[in-house]
Amino acid sequence: LRDQMEALFRQPLRHLQSRLLECAPPVFVIDALDECKPETVADLITLLGEALRDPDLPVFHILLTSRLEAHIRQAIQK
Asked: Half-sphere exposure (CA, 13 Å, Cβ side) for 46?
Protein backbone atom coordinates (compact mmCIF):
# COMPACT_ATOMS: atom_id res chain seq x y z
CA LEU A 1 0.00 0.00 0.00
CA ARG A 2 2.90 2.35 0.77
CA ASP A 3 4.36 1.82 -2.73
CA GLN A 4 0.96 2.45 -4.33
CA MET A 5 0.51 5.62 -2.29
CA GLU A 6 3.90 6.89 -3.43
CA ALA A 7 3.37 6.05 -7.11
CA LEU A 8 -0.29 7.02 -7.47
CA PHE A 9 -0.72 9.89 -5.02
CA ARG A 10 2.45 11.52 -3.72
CA GLN A 11 4.52 11.57 -6.93
CA PRO A 12 1.70 13.07 -9.04
CA LEU A 13 1.10 15.72 -6.38
CA ARG A 14 4.78 16.64 -6.34
CA HIS A 15 4.73 16.87 -10.13
CA LEU A 16 1.72 19.23 -10.06
CA GLN A 17 2.92 21.33 -7.14
CA SER A 18 3.80 24.47 -9.12
CA ARG A 19 0.47 24.41 -10.98
CA LEU A 20 -1.51 23.89 -7.78
CA LEU A 21 -0.09 27.09 -6.27
CA GLU A 22 -2.43 29.05 -8.54
CA CYS A 23 -5.54 27.12 -7.47
CA ALA A 24 -7.56 26.41 -4.39
CA PRO A 25 -6.25 23.31 -2.61
CA PRO A 26 -7.54 20.12 -4.24
CA VAL A 27 -9.96 17.91 -2.35
CA PHE A 28 -9.61 14.14 -2.59
CA VAL A 29 -12.71 12.12 -1.76
CA ILE A 30 -12.36 8.58 -0.47
CA ASP A 31 -15.81 7.03 -0.40
CA ALA A 32 -17.00 3.92 1.44
CA LEU A 33 -13.95 3.50 3.62
CA ASP A 34 -15.90 0.91 5.60
CA GLU A 35 -15.78 -1.40 2.56
CA CYS A 36 -12.02 -1.89 3.05
CA LYS A 37 -10.46 -4.50 5.30
CA PRO A 38 -9.87 -3.12 8.82
CA GLU A 39 -6.08 -3.48 8.59
CA THR A 40 -6.08 -1.72 5.22
CA VAL A 41 -8.14 1.15 6.63
CA ALA A 42 -5.64 1.74 9.42
CA ASP A 43 -2.70 1.67 7.00
CA LEU A 44 -4.44 3.98 4.53
CA ILE A 45 -5.33 6.53 7.21
CA THR A 46 -1.75 6.47 8.48
CA LEU A 47 -0.38 7.03 4.97
CA LEU A 48 -2.84 9.85 4.29
CA GLY A 49 -1.88 11.51 7.57
CA GLU A 50 1.79 11.30 6.62
CA ALA A 51 1.03 12.85 3.23
CA LEU A 52 -0.95 15.69 4.83
CA ARG A 53 2.03 16.54 7.04
CA ASP A 54 4.64 16.25 4.26
CA PRO A 55 6.14 19.71 3.62
CA ASP A 56 7.25 18.60 0.14
CA LEU A 57 3.63 18.18 -0.99
CA PRO A 58 1.22 20.99 -1.83
CA VAL A 59 -1.66 21.75 0.52
CA PHE A 60 -4.64 19.47 -0.09
CA HIS A 61 -7.74 18.27 1.72
CA ILE A 62 -9.19 14.81 2.17
CA LEU A 63 -12.86 13.94 2.63
CA LEU A 64 -13.49 10.44 3.96
CA THR A 65 -16.93 8.84 3.92
CA SER A 66 -17.85 5.72 5.80
CA ARG A 67 -20.42 4.08 7.95
CA LEU A 68 -19.66 4.55 11.62
CA GLU A 69 -17.31 1.68 12.45
CA ALA A 70 -15.23 1.40 15.62
CA HIS A 71 -12.01 0.41 13.83
CA ILE A 72 -12.26 3.42 11.51
CA ARG A 73 -12.85 5.81 14.37
CA GLN A 74 -9.86 4.35 16.22
CA ALA A 75 -7.61 4.66 13.17
CA ILE A 76 -8.58 8.30 12.67
CA GLN A 77 -8.05 9.15 16.33
CA LYS A 78 -4.48 7.81 16.25
From this structure: 11
